[in-house]
Amino acid sequence: MHSPAAKVSGYVVLMIVQIIFLVLFWLFVRYEKTAMPLAIDAEDAGSANEHVSKYPQFQDIQVMIFIGFGFLMTFLRKYGYSATGFTLFMAALVVQWAVLMKGFLHMEGGKISLSLENIIDADIAAAVPLISMGALLGRTTPIQLLCMSVFEVALFAANEYLALHVFSICDCGGSITVHAFGAYFGLAVALMLRPASDQNEAGKLEGASYTSDIFAMIGTTFLWVYWPSFNSVLADGAGGERAILNTFLSLAAATVTTFVVSALVSHENKLDMVHVQNSTLAGGVAVGTVCNLLLGAHGAVLIGIIAGTVSVLGYRYLTPWMTANLRLHDTCGVHNLHGMPALISAIASAIYASMATVGEYQSELQDIFPAMMGTNGTETKIMGGLGRNATSQAGYQLFGIAVTLLIAIGGGILTGAVLKYTNFRNLKKDEHHQDEHYWEVPAAENKEE
Amino acid sequence: MHSPAAKVSGYVVLMIVQIIFLVLFWLFVRYEKTAMPLAIDAEDAGSANEHVSKYPQFQDIQVMIFIGFGFLMTFLRKYGYSATGFTLFMAALVVQWAVLMKGFLHMEGGKISLSLENIIDADIAAAVPLISMGALLGRTTPIQLLCMSVFEVALFAANEYLALHVFSICDCGGSITVHAFGAYFGLAVALMLRPASDQNEAGKLEGASYTSDIFAMIGTTFLWVYWPSFNSVLADGAGGERAILNTFLSLAAATVTTFVVSALVSHENKLDMVHVQNSTLAGGVAVGTVCNLLLGAHGAVLIGIIAGTVSVLGYRYLTPWMTANLRLHDTCGVHNLHGMPALISAIASAIYASMATVGEYQSELQDIFPAMMGTNGTETKIMGGLGRNATSQAGYQLFGIAVTLLIAIGGGILTGAVLKYTNFRNLKKDEHHQDEHYWEVPAAENKEE
Amino acid sequence: MHSPAAKVSGYVVLMIVQIIFLVLFWLFVRYEKTAMPLAIDAEDAGSANEHVSKYPQFQDIQVMIFIGFGFLMTFLRKYGYSATGFTLFMAALVVQWAVLMKGFLHMEGGKISLSLENIIDADIAAAVPLISMGALLGRTTPIQLLCMSVFEVALFAANEYLALHVFSICDCGGSITVHAFGAYFGLAVALMLRPASDQNEAGKLEGASYTSDIFAMIGTTFLWVYWPSFNSVLADGAGGERAILNTFLSLAAATVTTFVVSALVSHENKLDMVHVQNSTLAGGVAVGTVCNLLLGAHGAVLIGIIAGTVSVLGYRYLTPWMTANLRLHDTCGVHNLHGMPALISAIASAIYASMATVGEYQSELQDIFPAMMGTNGTETKIMGGLGRNATSQAGYQLFGIAVTLLIAIGGGILTGAVLKYTNFRNLKKDEHHQDEHYWEVPAAENKEE
């Protein structure tokens, strides 16, 4: 009777994409030297492999991507299969694509060197379309999501290269390049796919059930717990330890603030699970870009307090306003969890950069702000000449977020237009937020509820 | 109509507490040297940071605190938001407070040095009020819980200092200072808040649903899996490896024993999920204080068997008796999971200490029992003179648990009195074990069930 | 009225087994030297303990065993207590038994040396009966399961010794010795316990509910995320890094393929949660035996694509056929997740072994294929003389899987016969897939649904 929610042809295209990946891996990817056997006459360096010392942090990030994001999105009452399943599907596709895309930007001798570092980067890249998915949750087909993620990751890799290697901004925890990019890209797509004005009211399935809210807490708590690994994985030495400490404290302060503000602004002063599931994590985003800087414990806590407050107020006032006035639904409220906290992080990075001195950062200055030291490595093309001063670096931080927003929003609008006006199957209003259009759902259950 | 279950003023007080923390962090806390940049002319020590080598274990403990405790307490059918949410709220507040409180006891030059070690300690401290929360689950407001946790952690830090640095007891896995303290403090508070004698019967919400029981198993299994990290994180070298091995074996033996004893003593020989969720973990508590000693595999297994047996029998016979006769509800049965197994651990520590010799422990004796070696470090003030003998050390182990019980129960009674007789809102019987008094609960769901 | 589903006598026997373990630990097990105190006059080697460097990977595997397997099996609508509970029960029993059984094969001076390595091996051994449990899920009593696991682990240890130390096959991730053994042993037991031909239709409880399917995704995602740790834990250096990379890529490719093939072959092109929960993991099994070889990224991706395809087709066509024609129910479809992908892995290992050269593997050849180098260590008894050539090694790989299948199926038939025809209580058809026969299930809930 009714047409299936996802076309077969879409799945076939995804299979072809997978096979193209296979061919590209075959043509371009080789193990890095550290993952190759030692020459038979080389001295044995022992069994310890320094190059996998980040493996525990990689695993923490894996949990964040696959369990954290997946379960955070199970809060919708009838969309749990899709939340966990499509997260797995999208992440599995994106990690391969990210190895290739990011690899193409750093090839040596026409080959991509594959090591643990590449799959850490790939996991971080997978966060980007998963954030965007949060803005669209329940209102696209899986085919649309997957195709979006392929476009998005390519743009993300380009923007990240620009921000880190051309503008030389600092962005240790990726709030600018990952969170802001993912959030605003997703919001732009959502804007393009927004409902007609006579279909703007929230559907009854656009909410949680008691059980689905608890499933979502699995996602929240794992993201909370492992966030220090996400922020610190690309930092080394003392900077890595600071990234851990600052992220931990910012999260803790954001969490306390979230509960308090949630109670103060909510109906009957009851706590709201949406705030608890999401705004508690805003501290991790807001501290991201600056997590390895010399914030001090108080700096981290202050950022957390601001992030928790802004995020809860966003959920309480801004999101309903955007739904009513812009018809922008933002199902998971990624603007409040990723978007605004990332802007806070970018602003904080400009403030701290403007105060950075050699006297304070000593030997780390050239790692954290390479353009300020005049030691441009082989890959770093410093804009604005050598030996940027602190004020100039602060300006570049703001420039970095501005360019990121531009590329993300522009790319999102284009992608959204492609998803809407080309041959993709678009969901109708009454097909939103329901697993049963793409999944075989247990029959009895389906009737009961 | 009805007054909200938590007063706004309480949340405001918590916000003020958070801001006081911010000020204290600003005044007193500085990064430790390991987390500060190297001088620009210092030789680069490489990217490896020895000081974060415990990071993977820290992350395991984070999972135990936030996911383990949180989900273990979701077993009540209508209290899952509170179990997971208040765990997050309390732990986020306590970790900050613990960094400060424990820091004040170890200041250098008027400042607290912040490093990974401090937040490991803070996570361990967070376990203490979470254990107490288990005894009170569903019968307090969040404001009461949070205020309790602030008092409790201050007392905990003082008692821990006394036990470890004044009495010089061994307590590697914290069964005395963490588990016994948290359990008996919580029970003392519960005794103060106990219902009037005509309201003593268990409410219909004081039980599990099929789904909530499975959610609780998430907590159980993560606690089970990561318990070796909790017990071993403060041990080094060979002692750390023994702590892992002994904890693992004790948990395994306690688990097998729990299932068998549960079937033997239960109605119709059916297994009881309460036992499976909790008593399986008693092996981790009971081996805690002695986990780095030379127990041998058989010693660890024996402790596990005893702990599993005692814990199940406690749930089956002692808890109902306490509810009926003392009106002490102990919602999660923390007396059976944390209290009695911690006493077993303390007794075991006296036994093993009484047999400790230099010949056996060699170079580790001074780490494990510093008072026995006469090498008193700067912080260790040995009571009873230098060079304690083994019998004397055994006596101090028992003295340590006795003082801990005294402080925990005394502190709990005082705290309970404050929560009951001052301006705090107390819950009425029919408000117990229900999320909907503090949380916005999905409307449809709420009507359905 | 009705007899309890598990006899008391069975539980008593298990307690006796636990006490026998205690005695065996006391008689035979001692800490390894690395876990013993240094002599008091020895130089301090620092606090770092090289011997626990695999601890983070051990913890990942713990999560796979206790959370991964446990929750993957919660997909049945009324069997969640048993899935999580019996996993815990079985694994706790088996890890102790595996330390002893595998220890007896490697004793030194009549004693088993206990170190972290032993409990890593024990966790891997625990996977074996858990895989078999998947084939039987819901159709045995816990006593039958536990007794089966005791037989099975003994046979597993013998077969593994034969394969690795006598035939000198490579099997880094254990697809042959763990996955194939566990799957075919379980299937053989299931065949022995198959229903009478007039009782062959699937019961209405042999399926998922909406909530139980999401619980199962907890298992799937944790297995997915930590699978690289399982495959790489026994590899060192560069081989370990390759094991991580290959497993990751194979899983990703298998996941994409699973979604696509699931949509293509399912009714109305809807996705099937059974495929998503299981076939996505087939990539981890199929790459297991060869994960440390020089597959290249494309090799790993190709194996993943094949595994995902075969696994989904197995669920869609082969399992229903086996149920209809052989009355073999295979509740979790372990044949599609573990059995066939393990065969693929064995065949791949023969292919890659046949192409292995010293020029390519350099110094690693003697670690990976010890029989090819003629350097037979103390334990390695090379069959077929010294210096096996590549073709011969390929033959041994196939011989290894053949012998494994023979022992697994033979042992499974024998064990199944013991479980069926001796004094064990067997479940009746209408007792299948229901927790309430062994568990106290919440009363209200039970009536409602």
From TrEMBL, chains A, B, C:
UniProt key word Ion transport: no
Membrane topology term: Multi-pass membrane protein
Domain called Ammonium transporter AmtB-like: residue spans: 21-433
Coiled coil stretches, renumbered: none
One Gene Ontology cellular component annotation held by this UniProt entry: plasma membrane
Tree of life domain: Eukaryota
InterPro entries the UniProt entry points to: Ammonium/urea_transptr (IPR029020), NH4_transpt_AmtB-like_dom (IPR024041), RhesusRHD (IPR002229)
Subcellular location: Membrane
Pfam families in the record: Ammonium_transp
PANTHER family: AMMONIUM TRANSPORTER, RH50, ISOFORM D
Protein name: Rh-like protein
Protein species of origin: Drosophila simulans (Fruit fly)
This protein's encoding gene: Dsim\Rh50
